[in-house]
Design brief:
With about 260 residues, the protein is α/β, with parallel strands linked by helices. It folds into 2 domains: about 120 residues, Rossmann fold (3-Layer(aba) Sandwich); about 130 residues, LpxI C-terminal catalytic domain (Cytidine Deaminase, domain 2, 3-Layer(aba) Sandwich), CATH 3.40.140. The radius of gyration is 19 Å and the shape is globular. The protein starts with a strand and ends with a strand.
Length: about 260
Amino acid sequence: MKVCLIAGSGELPRVFFREALKAGVEVFVIGIRGITDLHVDQYIPLGKVERLVKTLQKEGIKDIVMLGKFEHSLLFSHLLTLDSLAIKILQRARDRKPQTLIKTFIEELASIGFNFPDPRPYLEAILAPAGRMGSVEPSAEAMEDGLWGFPIAKELASLDVGQTLVVKDKAVVSVEAMEGTQKTIERAGELAGKGCRVIKVARRSQDFRIDVPTVGPKTVEAIKKIRGDALFVEAGKIYLIDREKLVKLADKHGIAVYGL
């Protein structure tokens, strides 16, 4: 079996690459310069979908997995460089939400014979469990904030606004949009200071072929920087990148990591 991995930034593409190879799957990595930080078999510029199709047809590849971070804002900075197939996908999309654009991309490529398998069989080992993940127990106030903010975060994620919410004292401090998780956390620190709690969730109808939600050591570093005290993640739906390092770092800085 041979699969194409379209790799964004972050550790998730590396985890998939490693686990797929263990399972005997040959992985052909497509990357984008300045974004992908994994070994790449071929770079393709952002927005050049026709080149992607021709490359995969030449390699005899039908299965495509997309993992890693591609900031939504990148699309708008490359509008003038889109090829005709990318423009067709953009025109077909009913809106410019990340999930809509990726689904339209998948539908268009599926119509010409490509498949998009669910990557979860290769990633199950890093899904967040329920309950406390380190030695730090959330305070009563932090747990109240986490439980209060969780349904709000789920609603916002399901509206495709963003999958990260920061709360404090049962008030919403910041909501993730195009800027990504790290900057959302940084903004919360600027607005509310010490004691913020970060919540990361999946959409209610999360398609795990699209925008897989993750947290990792960088998430904890961002929380530490704003003097936050808790990270709540949706159990069984959020991927933990480098879990051992994440938990050690959280324990070191007194940050509770908890699966809801």
